[in-house]
Amino acid sequence: MPSSPRTRRADHTLNDHSRKKERNLKEFYPTRSNNARKGDFGRVVVCGGSDRYAGCLAFNSLAALRAGADLAIVVAPRRAADIVAGYSPDLITVPCDSPFPDPNIAIEVLENADSLVLGCGVTRTPESHEALLDIIQRCKTPMVLDAEALHSLAAKADTIKGKKVLLTPNAGEYQVLSGTPWPPALEAKRTAVENLARQYDATVIVKGAPDVISDGKKTYVDRRGSPYLTKGGYGDLLAGVAGAQLARGRNPLDAAKVAAFIVGRAGELASSKLGESTLASDVLTYLSFVIRSRRGESL
Prior knowledge:
The protein is of the alpha/beta class. It is built from 11 helices and 9 strands. 44% of the residues lie in helices and 13% in strands.
């Protein structure tokens, strides 16, 4: 059952003892100038996929577009890229002949990009991990690292040193990154996320019920969501929304907070209509509604 607004406010300002003025969604979606042009609101590159997994890339990129990015470009193995291209005409794809995103192609595409979402759908092999670490090391834009990118990073944490990075693990991936199990108690979860953020010198959101977010200094808990959001793809939407926020110039902590808010609320709305039948693609359709109608609500 969703928590009350009073509980949410307390959770969201956790560890902010000065109780600074809360931020709301409108700050992240101000009125646009009539002179706005394509590219002004960010270009997101999504790198991932394999012969088996392609849908996650569509969710990453479509969520980024729904969250306000102007362009989403998918770099993926050919079969995955072709599937994504056929899924929506809104998406640009760059196919690779390798079974994972080709680092040289990815870096070339990133030269004209504003953020990177990396790791979803990649098959776990030593070669794919090497490729992902190569992309991370050479990337100059802010990054969202998810799924297999987290597994590759766990073996070489210093790869992200000095970079703007948001890590988006689930409970299992948290254990891969930290070497310890995800704790059951909320207070212990907050401490665990803070420690992980400090360990990697990055912002972290551990996805779950609730989402716990920290940059190692400030920590937030977002309780939005639904017990019906257990099917594949929900986390891919969060990574895409966060990637859009990074591309629009937000810092990783704000990107994580906005993504948790938008995707969590969209999930509540979708599941209130569909219950057990709720799919990630249903949640995707509600992202624009949340952004349009909830702009005055506090994060």
